[in-house]
Design a protein that fits this description.
Elements: E1 17-21, H1 25-34, E2 40-45, E3 57-61, E4 72-77, H2 82-93, E5 98-100, E6 113-117, E7 120-124, H3 131-144, H4 149-166, H5 170-182, H6 184-192, H7 194-210, E8 217-222, H8 233-241, E9 244-247, H9 253-256, E10 264-267, H10 279-291, E11 295-300, H11 310-319, E12 323-327, H12 332-339, E13 353-357, H13 366-374, E14 378-382, H14 388-397, E15 405-410, E16 418-423, H15 424-428, E17 431-432, E18 439-443, E19 456-457, E20 463-464
Parallel strand pairs: 1-2, 1-4, 2-3, 4-5, 8-11, 8-12, 9-10, 9-11, 13-14, 16-19
Antiparallel strand pairs: 6-7, 14-18, 15-16, 15-18, 17-20
The protein binds S-adenosyl-L-homocysteine (SAH).
The site of S-adenosyl-L-homocysteine has 23 residues, from helix 12 and strand 18.
Length: 466
Amino acid sequence: MARLNTFPLSFKVRGQRIVIIGGGEEALNKVRLVTKTSAHVLVIARHVEADFSGFAVDIVERGFMPADLDGVALVFVAEEGADAERAKAEARARNIPLNVVDVPAECDFYTPSIVDRAPLTVAISSEGDAPVLARLVRARIEAMLPPGFGKMASLAGGLRKQVEKLIQTGPARRRFYEALVTSPQVEAAVAASPIAGRYQAEVLLEQHQAQSASAGIVWLIGAGPGSEDLLTLRAQRLLQEADVIVHDQLVPDAVVQMGRRDAEQISVGKAKGHHSFSQAQINTLIVRLAREGKKVARLKSGDPMVFGRAGEEIAALRKAGLAYAIVPGVSAAMAAAADTATPVTLRKVSSGFIMATAHGADDSDLTHWAALAQAGLTLALYMGKSIASDVAGRLVANGASPSTPVGIVVNAGRADKSTYAGTLGALAAGQVAFSDGPAIILVGEAVAAGDWAQAADFATQQFKVA
Ligand code: SAH
C-alpha cells in the first residue's frame, strides 16, 4: 500500500504572524489562502505588483531583514532573488516551517486546497504532485457542503446540553443532529443570523422531541426538466441522503441514479398504458415510509409546486404529523424559455407570465379560457401537446388574436429537445405531428422576441386535418 510522505495537520496560527516574501501574483495567491485565518499577515517585497487591497495584510516595501522573522510561525517565499535566498536561510536557521512556492524540494510543508466552512475545514492535499486534481476534488466537495455548513457546526455545539436533556437515546440524538445539519430551514436561518439559526434549531428540536423518536422525513424535490445538471445542489445532496426515492415517470433514470446507490427506488409513474399508483396510493406510500423512520426523497419533474400534486401530498404529511421540506426545481416552462431565449416578461410587451394547464379544463371551463385569452400576458401551457390545436382554437374563440405568436418546446431542457413555432391561427387550423416527449406551449407577443430559428413552422408541418 502506498504510504503518505506528508502528514496533514491543522496548524494553530491564532495570534501568530505569517510572513510572505514577494509582491507578485504568487504572493497574492498565498495571501488569499492565509488571510482565511486569524493570523497577522505581513508581506515583504521591494516591489509590490499585485493588488493586495481588500486583504487584511501589512505590506512593507523594502528588502528582507532577519528581524522580520522574529516570532513568526510560518514563512512563504513567493519570489526569487537575493532577498528570497536570505529569507530561506534565515527561516531554516530559526527552524521556522518554510514554503517555497513552486519548489517542492525546498518546502517543509505544502498548502492544501481548502474548503472553508469555518470552524469546519476540509483540506485536500496531493503532496504537491497534482494540484489540478486537488482543485477538482475541492470543487466537488464545495458543492457538497452548503455555505452555512460551518456555522451549523457552531450551532450544533451550542445546543448540546439542551439536546441531551430533551432527547434521551443516542440514536435519536444522532437523528436530530442529522436533521439539524441537513435542514434547509436551519441552513437559511443560520445564514441570516446566529440568533435566527438558534431559533430554527430549537423549533426542529421541539418537533423531534414531539414526534415518535423514529419518525422519518419526506423531501418533495424538484428534479428539473430532465438533465442532471439542471438539478439543484440541494436536490443532489438530499438525494444522496435519502433511504428511499419515490419518483414520477417523467424523471429520467439518469437523475434518479444521482441518488445514493443503495437507496430503494420506487417508480410511481403515470405513463400511459402502465400500471400506475393513484394519488391516494402515493400519499399512503410516502406517509408509511416516513413513519417507518425513512428519509424519503419524493422526486418530481420540474418544480414540485407546479402541477406536481404537491398540495395533496403535503396535506397528507401534515395530517400524519410528519416532517417534510420542499426543494424547488427548474420548471419546464423556464427550461423552454431558456432553450429558445424567450424572455417571458419583456418591457412594454409582456408585463407578466402565467403558468396554466391546457388539460382538464375543457370547453365548459369558460372562465379559464377567457382569462387566458384576454390576459395579454405570456402563457406557458402545460399538458397540452396532444390537444395543442384545440387549445389554440379555444384561445382564439375566447378573444385572442389569431396572429398571436406561439412556440412549442418538446423535451425542454434536454439534449433531444425540438421546437415548433407559428401563430395561434396556424396551430388551430390542424394538428401538428410533434416528436415524442412532454411539451410546453408558449403563447404571447413576447414569444416573437425569442430565438426560434431552429423551430419547425406550423404552416409547413404535416397537419392531420382535424
Ligand atoms: N412539475 C412539472 C410539471 C409536471 S406536469 C414542472 O414544473 O415542470 C407535466 C407537464 O409538464 C407535461 O405535460 C409537460 O407539459 C410539462 N413538462 C415536464 N417536463 C417537460 C420537459 N422536459 N419539456 C417540456 N415540457 C415538460
